[in-house]
Amino acid sequence: MSDVTPPSNFTRRDLLRLGAAAIGVTPALAAGRKQGPVCESGGCCITPSGDFYNVERGNPVPYKLPIEKQREIGMVRETWQLEVIADPESNAKIERPMLRADGTALTFDALMKIAETKATSFLKVITCNNLADPLGHGLWEGVPLREVLWLAGPVENLRHVYYYGHHNEDPKQMFKCYLPMNRVFEEPPGELPVLLCTKLNGEFLTGERGGPVRMIVPEAYGFKSVKWLQRIVFTNAHQSDDTYANGNNDTNSWLKTFARFALLPEKISAGDELTIHGNAQVGVSGLAKVQYWLRRMSEPLPANDRYFAKAPWQDAQIVPFDGEAIKGFGAAPLHPAQFDPATKQPREWPLRHTLCRWTAAPRKLAPGNYELRCRTIDLADHAQPMPRPFPKSGRNNIQSVKLEVV
């Protein structure tokens, strides 16, 4: 094969340049295929709010209702309210239920008053556990859930909270998720809190993004981060009963680490340079490296090697963190588990629960038909799709794309 071997010693400037250049692939090269969310340049891979891919429920979708109806059901900040109650079907006990009926439900203004001293923000990728590509990645801001739940005076017989958003007064449209009590009230040092989220990338959430208020669970797939939040229930139920469980999904699965290509062409000329690049989701197991494998279609695949462990993988380079990507988000209070308060730099890169960019040096290929694959190696030295290759707990299959060089 006459492709050019990439250099192994990229400089930071080279990587940032390649990471940005990958966005600017000419239309002719990019035609016909695009994977992953739309990202701005830089290693952070920030997705503008309007460019997130949508996975949503509701008939009709509540943020598309007439504005008068949105005001009536609390889909705008001025009328939004959050109820916090004890499960009437269990013996959970709280001292101060927060109810619309008696005027004690939490209003948006009251939540923002708490945010004056308790707000925090962190980078997080949103991914559907039944889809192959992330939906988007951004800086989410809000108030740790526990700060609000303590207002309800939780007392005893408490094992989970479950929560749901607006569902058009139709029980069949309710989308309900559970979290164990320990996850809500106490995260280990270095972990991020569950968030009552009000902002994305420095701006208040739109209805399309789940506003006025949504849940954000840092380490979880998107189904746990329920949109249009309206009620939280303390319960003594010993078994979670997420709506997603009824679809044969693992509701206690956390984000996996995997790589995906982005903006790769289906056909190029032999004289064109090809930059192999993409995004990597950094799950709970972290990310040590990204690798790619370029194979002529005429070459045989490794025998008896389901996950291609014996293939001649080559290391790509992870694009460094670029602080410019988050400078435009105002005075967002960055969570110290992710960012050093003094320097505003990430404590490590890539950060867990986020999306980062990766790239390889441009190369020219001889005419022929090729196949490209990419994978990750996590911090425990597991090669994708290990250690959890089971699709119902999130899809992290090794991606394969075809390329014709003419």
Description:
- This protein is an alpha+beta fold.
- It has two domains: 12-44 and 256-405, Sandwich (Immunoglobulin-like); 51-247, Oxidoreductase, molybdopterin-binding domain (Sulfite Oxidase, Chain A, domain 2), CATH 3.90.420.10.
- 10% of the residues lie in helices and 26% in strands.
- The chain is built from six helices and 21 strands.
- It has helices at residues 12-21, 27-30, 67-73, 108-118, 145-149, 181-185; strands at 81-86, 93-94, 106-107, 120-126, 136-144, 154-156, 160-165, 176-180, 195-200, 203-204, 214-216, 229-235, 258-261, 267-268, 277-282, 289-296, 314-315, 317-318, 354-359, 368-377, 399-405.
- A five-stranded mixed sheet has the order 3-1-12-7-8.
- A hairpin with a 2-residue loop joins strand 9 and strand 10.
- It is elongated, with a radius of gyration of 23 Å.
- It starts with 11 loop residues before the first helix and ends with a strand.
- 42% of the residues are buried.
